[in-house]
From TrEMBL:
<keyword id="KW-0479">Metal-binding</keyword>
<dbReference type="Pfam" id="PF00403">
    <property type="entry name" value="HMA"/>
</dbReference>
<protein>
    <recommendedName>
        <fullName>HMA domain-containing protein</fullName>
    </recommendedName>
</protein>
<dbReference type="InterPro" id="IPR036163">
    <property type="entry name" value="HMA_dom_sf"/>
</dbReference>
<feature type="domain" description="HMA">
    <location>
        <begin position="26"/>
        <end position="90"/>
    </location>
</feature>
<dbReference type="InterPro" id="IPR006121">
    <property type="entry name" value="HMA_dom"/>
</dbReference>
Amino acid sequence: MGALDHLSNIFDCSGGHTKLNKRRQLQTVEIKIKIDCEGCERKVRRSVEGMKGVTSVDISPKQSKLTVIGYVEPEKVVSRVAHRTGKKAELWPYVPYDVVDHPYAQGVYDKKAPAGYVRNVQDPRMSQLARASSTEVRYTTAFSDENPAACVVM
């Protein structure tokens, strides 16, 4: 088959336009979109159900969350929902608060987030909260009750 493939590539008359089929992977796309009533829910569902590659659609109005499972690209789903419904749509910006080191730090905690969720922040300043410097460790252990060589002033 190698020789036949080579010859077919040489005598190809398609004008150099080869269509490469990329295999899309099954993805779960979570979108934050405000859903006020059953009419909004129906409108959002219909905007996504007609897309090629969508296998299931789940809507959670209390969390203002749309979950789409299928062989789709997240950016295309968000843009289609925003265009068809006329509502502001964005990828789901929240993670469970168990995942974050400091869920109540400034910039992570969000009052508008659903219960049990905080913002997913990849800010390097937030990672400083997780690590204490060696100077801080020395001062905190100097006055600790568990340290036998602690300061006797206390």
